[in-house]
């Protein structure tokens, strides 16, 4: 039994206690900041939370609560003012949208949509990957990317099992080829031995005839197996090896396409991912006079084309890396379906059949979901007055996107999950049993909501709003803006690219919500100091925070796909590097083309000079 050196043992003990050391030592190492000016004290809180968020020595939501203690203790803000930041309009928008998403999951509506689309696109390799990416991105626009990935991964694995076969079956096939090879060699030896025995036992046979027969038998029994059977066996082994390698590559490609599409799709809507909500919350916090420049419609008009562009380029990259660059071949143009492709299609169809016909509850949830989206789009469409202005005879700001989402969410707790008695046209085979049970349960219950709701994100958002408010009140934002004045000489497009590079690197190691929370207030101050439209740097920061493609721990979809066992860290790293480059290029193109026109980024707006009241 080997004994580790003393130094190595100490290093192991230190590594085991690293979390405790970071938790305890960081506040003391940063303490000089807290004992200086008010601006430095606020920087102390931000730096401490940044370290805790990056190392996750505390749960992210617990770290987000630190301003409620440290801001009052350091004399930055009163406790009541700090606590008010944790439940703003943006938080309620998130709550309402998530309740609708929980109802969609509860009634398996997302699975029905996914299977229906996959049945439409087919199971050709290129179309299958495109179908998985499109479905995942669309669902991720409305429900969490984690839930979307968790639902799609089993479907991917089921399709792969039918399309590519089982690994165990492949291993058995290889072993059978080896056994056949050994059997042929034994037969050859036995035949050669039998010939030599015949020669010795029958001396009456003429020598010439014997030699001719012997040579003839050897030419048939020895030369033939070596020249024909053995090369065929080696060829079969090589083909099986190539086939196994192709299976692995396709499995990796389809799984990565799902997790990447989940991260890409979330950027298209305000409620699709956390950084988008951080952006709208910080805008309302730091620039209260912005006139609702970012709402559901304006963000969708900007981000949806960006998402489509990013998704298309990502599909080309994954297609090239893991399947085949020959799109004509992988799309199956002019080719009949193979048996395995038919089996995969039948598996999808069987899974869809198991869902049965749409129930009353599913139809009700789908109707409410569509109603919510329509109300979001028509509330304040910008080119005309929306329904909020006409119905309530007030400004659109009085009724926000949060009002819509909460209205739909409350309806989910009111409307029944089974058809009322007056709907005679609806089939009700078990009407008598339902009458004996009493009233039907609602579409969504509070117990289901409690189990499914990510309450930690609400605290994370609130912690970000508290940090932004503390930075403003303490004067830290103004100080940071003054330090960044020299950036005025750098072109704005170059600043946007540098920000994208910085954020995409940082978000690989930290939560995307935490990344947006830390950087958005700083970028807002920088834009004010150099007279640059704040959206020109805040929007690229927000989008880049969602593009964590390189590491399994960077985002939950990556971790879910990595846990399947098909992928290595190197696979995600080499694929994710190019994905990050594609993302930066797409963001740069979007913000400098249709984003520049949509948000008037060429001018410094008046609302950017007006900060929130103290």
Automatic annotation (TrEMBL):
- PANTHER family, alphabetized: SOLUTE CARRIER FAMILY 13 MEMBER, SOLUTE CARRIER FAMILY 13 MEMBER 5A
MF terms per GO, please? Answer: citrate transmembrane transporter activity; sodium:dicarboxylate symporter activity; succinate transmembrane transporter activity
What Pfam family does this protein match (any one)? Answer: Na_sulph_symp
Q: What is this protein called?
A: Solute carrier family 13 member 5a
Q: What keyword terms does UniProt attach to this protein? A: Ion transport, Membrane, Sodium, Sodium transport, Transmembrane, Transmembrane helix, Transport
Topological type in the membrane: Multi-pass membrane protein
Q: Which family does it belong to?
A: Belongs to the SLC13A/DASS transporter (TC 2.A.47) family. NADC subfamily.
Q: Where is this region: Disordered?
A: 219-246
Biased region (Basic and acidic residues) positions are: 226-235
Question: Where located?
Answer: Membrane
Assigned GO CC terms: plasma membrane
Which segments show compositional bias classed as Acidic residues?
236-245
For the biological process aspect of GO, one term held by this record is: oxaloacetate transport
Q: Where are the transmembrane segments?
A: 50-74, 86-104, 124-143, 254-273, 293-318, 359-378, 398-415, 453-470, 490-523, 575-594
Q: Which InterPro entries match?
A: Na/sul_symport_CS, SLC13A/DASS
Give the domain of life: Eukaryota
Transmembrane as a keyword of this entry, yes or no, is yes
In terms of PROSITE patterns, this protein maps to: NA_SULFATE (PS01271)
């Amino acid at each position: 039994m080997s004994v580790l050196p003393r130094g190595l043992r100490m290093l192991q003990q230190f590594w085991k206690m690293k979390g405790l050391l970071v938790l305890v030592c960081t506040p003391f190492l940063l303490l000089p900041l807290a004992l200086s000016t008010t601006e430095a004290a606020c920087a102390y809180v931000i730096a401490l939370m940044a370290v805790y968020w990056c190392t996750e020595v505390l749960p992210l939501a617990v770290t987000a609560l630190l301003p409620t203690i440290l801001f009052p203790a350091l004399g930055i803000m009163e406790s009541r003012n700090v606590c008010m930041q944790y439940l703003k309009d943006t938080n309620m928008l998130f709550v309402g949208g998530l309740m609708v998403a929980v109802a969609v999951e509860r009634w398996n509506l997302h699975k029905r949509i996914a299977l229906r689309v996959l049945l439409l696109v087919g199971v050709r390799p290129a179309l299958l990957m495109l179908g998985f990416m499109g479905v995942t991105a669309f669902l991720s626009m409305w429900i969490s990317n984690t839930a979307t990935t968790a639902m799609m991964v089993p479907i991917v694995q089921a399709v792969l099992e039918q399309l590519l076969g089982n690994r165990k079956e492949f291993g058995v096939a290889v072993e059978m080829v080896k056994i056949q090879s050994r059997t042929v060699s034994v037969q050859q030896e036995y035949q050669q031995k039998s010939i030599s025995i015949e020669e010795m036992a029958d001396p009456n046979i003429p020598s010439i005839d014997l030699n001719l027969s012997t040579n003839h038998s050897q030419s048939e029994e020895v030369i033939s197996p070596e020249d024909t059977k053995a090369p065929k066996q080696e060829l079969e082994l090589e083909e099986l090896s190539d086939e196994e390698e192709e299976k692995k590559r396709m499995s990796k490609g389809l799984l990565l396409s799902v997790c990447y599409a989940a991260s890409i799709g979330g950027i298209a809507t305000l409620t699709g991912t956390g950084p988008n909500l951080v952006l709208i919350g910080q805008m309302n916090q730091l620039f209260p006079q912005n006139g609702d420049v970012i709402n559901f419609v304006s963000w969708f008009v900007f981000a949806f084309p960006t998402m489509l562009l990013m998704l298309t380029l990502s599909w080309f990259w994954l297609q090239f890396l893991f399947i085949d660059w020959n799109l004509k071949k992988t799309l199956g143009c002019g080719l009949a379906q193979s048996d395995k492709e038919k089996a995969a299609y039948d598996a999808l169809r069987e899974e869809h059949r198991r869902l049965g016909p749409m129930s009353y509850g599913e139809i009700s949830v789908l109707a409410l979901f569509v109603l919510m989206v329509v109300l979001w789009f028509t509330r304040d469409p910008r080119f005309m007055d929306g329904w909020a202005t006409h119905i309530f005879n007030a400004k659109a700001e009085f009724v926000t996107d949060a009002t819509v989402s909460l209205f739909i969410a409350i309806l989910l707790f009111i409307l029944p999950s089974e058809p009322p008695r007056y709907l005679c046209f609806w089939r009700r085979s078990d009407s008598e049993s339902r009458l004996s049970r009493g009233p039907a349960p609602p579409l969504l219950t509070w117990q289901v909501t409690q189990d499914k709701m990510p309450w930690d994100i609400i605290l994370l958002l609130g912690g970000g709003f508290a940090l932004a408010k503390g930075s403003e009140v303490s004067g830290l934002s103004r100080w940071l803006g003054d330090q960044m004045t020299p950036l005025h000489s750098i072109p704005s497009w170059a600043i946007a690219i540098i920000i994208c590079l910085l954020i995409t690197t940082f978000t690989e190691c930290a939560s995307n919500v935490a990344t947006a929370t830390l950087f958005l207030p700083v970028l807002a101050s920088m834009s004010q100091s150099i007279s640059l439209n704040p959206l020109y740097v805040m929007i690229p920061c927000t989008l880049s925070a969602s593009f964590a493609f390189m590491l399994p721990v960077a985002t939950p979809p990556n971790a879910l796909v990595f846990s399947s066992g098909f992928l290595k860290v190197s696979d995600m790293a080499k694929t994710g590097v190019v994905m990050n480059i594609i993302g930066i290029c797409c963001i740069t193109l979007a913000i400098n083309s249709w984003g520049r026109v949509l948000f008037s980024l060429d001018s410094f707006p008046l609302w950017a000079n007006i900060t929130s009241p103290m």
